[in-house]
């Protein structure tokens, strides 16, 4: 009977063969983005659990689960980078567009799931007033909008015509611009109700908006 050590010695030369690595990358490439979204969702739940209910799960178990998610996320990003962030058979020549479209989808899932699952936990760090049911409803509604908009980004790479992909970029630019405008207006209109930490959310949306607008300009210039 072969021991585990002998089995590893036999399998390692086959696993590190370039052809095997290429086939594995091609097989897992289509599943990495979805797996990353699921891992990030689990990680958000773990962070919420450690912050709000630290005694529900033993801290050591939470730490192990977090590091497990971190390690798999790092592996997924490395595999995606090695495969040029391609998705399906519609591979865009520009690697940066591959990255931005899929990162856009990931960010939508992260923000949407967070606002859907625990809006009160996110809001109480930013506001000074008492939060009611209407606040939670509006927060969950915003989370639903972000989560559903991830479908556009995740499917845009399957569209072969650049003009069709511009539709996805226009949608993202419009959503981010309106969200940013609403945040800035609310910050100044109700300045007594917001904490300083609200500017963190504004800066994140600002970065997202600028990235979407720059991608829109770059894609339109390439079409011309």
TrEMBL record:
The chain crosses the membrane at residues 6-25, 99-118, 196-215. Keywords: Membrane, Transmembrane, Transmembrane helix. It comes from the Eukaryota. This is G protein-coupled receptor. It comes from Brugia pahangi.
């Amino acid at each position: 009977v072969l021991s585990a050590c002998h089995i590893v010695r036999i399998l390692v030369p086959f696993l590190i063969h370039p052809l095997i690595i290429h086939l594995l990358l091609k097989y897992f490439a289509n599943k990495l983005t979805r797996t990353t979204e699921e891992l990030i969702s689990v990680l958000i739940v773990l962070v919420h659990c450690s912050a709000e209910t630290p005694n529900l799960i033993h801290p050591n178990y939470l730490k192990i689960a977090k590091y497990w998610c971190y390690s798999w996320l790092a592996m997924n990003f490395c595999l995606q980078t090695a495969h040029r962030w391609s998705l399906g058979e519609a591979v865009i020549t520009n690697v940066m567009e591959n990255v931005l479209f899929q990162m856009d989808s990931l960010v939508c899932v992260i923000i949407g799931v967070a606002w859907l699952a625990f809006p009160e936990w996110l809001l109480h760090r930013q506001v000074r007033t008492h939060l009611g049911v209407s606040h939670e409803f509006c927060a969950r509604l915003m989370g639903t909008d972000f989560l559903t908009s991830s479908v556009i980004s995740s499917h845009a790479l399957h569209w072969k015509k650049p003009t069709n992909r511009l539709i996805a970029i226009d949608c993202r630019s419009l959503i981010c611009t309106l969200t940013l405008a609403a945040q800035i207006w609310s910050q100044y209109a109700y300045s007594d109700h917001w904490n300083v930490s609200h500017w963190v959310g504004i800066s994140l949306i600002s970065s997202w908006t600028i990235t979407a607008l720059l991608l829109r300009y770059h894609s339109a210039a390439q079409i011309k």
